[in-house]
Specification:
Blueprint (H helix, E strand, L loop, with lengths): L1 H39 L2 E2 L2 E4 L5 H6 L1 E14 L2 E14 L5 E11 L1 H8 L3 E6 L2 E6 L4 E10 L2 E11 L2 E3 L16 E3 L7 E8 L4 E11 L4
Antiparallel strand pairs: 1-3, 2-3, 3-4, 4-5, 5-13, 6-7, 7-8, 8-9, 9-10, 9-11, 12-13
Length: about 220
C-alpha cells in the first residue's frame, strides 16, 4: 500500500513539473510575442513581464491580470521619450486589445527637448534646474516645466545675460523673444492616456502618465 502511495505521489510530482515547465515555455513565448508587437509601434528594446504565478489560464481566457513593460525609448510624434516603465492591468487580448488601467513613467532628455523646441535654444540641466540658452548670444533662462494637457510648457523664472540677471524689458533687439511660448508637445500617447506629473530630475525631465480603458492596437 505504501509503495502505491509513493508511486502516486511521484506521478503527481512529475505531472506538476511538466505542467510548470510547459507554463514557463508559454510565458516566454507570450512575452516575446508582445515584445515584437511593441517593436512594431516604435519601442526600442522593449521588455515584457506577465504577472501572476502561472500564465496558461490567462492565455486561455485571453485576459492578463498584469503586464509590466519597460523600454529604452519610444518616439512619440517626433519627441523621444526614454527609460519607459509602464504597468497595465486587466489586459484583454484579441483583435482589439485594451488595458483596464495603465500607469507609467518616462524621461525626456535635454537633447530631446532641444530638438523639439527648434534651432534657437539649447536645453540643459544645471544644479537641479532646467536652463534654456540662446545660441546666438550669451543669454540664458531658468525655466520651470508645467503640464498643459498633452504638452509641457516652460515658464521663464530668471533671465541671465553674460552672467548678470536681467529683466525681459532690458533686453535689446528682441533677444528675449526666443524664450516666449516655449512648449514641447507630447501627443503620441495612446488614446485614454494623459500626462499626470512632471518634474526636473538629475539628468532629464521626468514624466508620469496614467489612463483607463486604453486601446493597445496600433492606430
Amino acid at each position: 500500500m505504501l509503495r502505491r502511495v509513493l508511486v502516486l505521489v511521484l506521478v503527481l510530482v512529475l505531472l506538476g513539473a511538466a505542467a510548470a515547465a510547459g507554463d514557463l515555455v508559454l510565458r516566454h513565448r507570450t512575452e516575446a510575442i508582445i515584445e515584437n508587437e511593441l517593436v512594431a509601434i516604435g519601442m526600442q528594446n522593449p521588455r515584457v513581464s506577465v504577472g501572476g504565478p502561472v500564465v496558461t489560464p490567462q492565455v486561455l481566457r485571453g485576459r492578463f491580470d498584469t503586464l509590466t513593460v519597460t523600454a529604452d525609448a519610444l518616439l512619440a510624434d517626433g519627441v523621444e521619450l526614454d527609460r519607459l516603465h509602464a504597468t497595465l492591468t486587466d489586459v484583454t487580448a484579441g483583435d482589439h486589445p485594451r488595458a483596464g488601467a495603465l500607469s507609467g513613467t518616462a524621461e525626456m532628455t535635454p537633447a530631446a527637448m532641444t530638438a523639439a523646441l527648434g534651432q534657437e535654444l539649447d536645453i540643459s540641466i544645471e544644479g537641479g534646474a532646467l536652463v534654456a540658452t540662446l545660441r546666438a548670444a550669451p543669454l540664458s533662462a531658468t525655466v520651470v516645466p508645467h503640464l498643459r494637457g498633452d504638452r509641457v510648457d516652460l515658464e521663464v523664472t530668471q533671465l541671465t545675460l553674460a552672467g548678470v540677471s536681467v529683466a525681459p524689458a532690458d533686453l535689446p533687439l528682441g533677444l528675449g523673444d526666443a524664450f516666449e511660448n516655449m512648449s514641447v508637445p507630447i501627443s503620441g500617447l495612446p488614446d485614454g492616456v494623459v500626462l499626470d506629473a512632471v518634474h526636473v530630475g538629475p539628468q532629464a525631465l521626468e514624466l508620469s502618465f496614467k489612463g483607463t480603458d486604453v486601446p493597445l492596437e496600433k492606430p
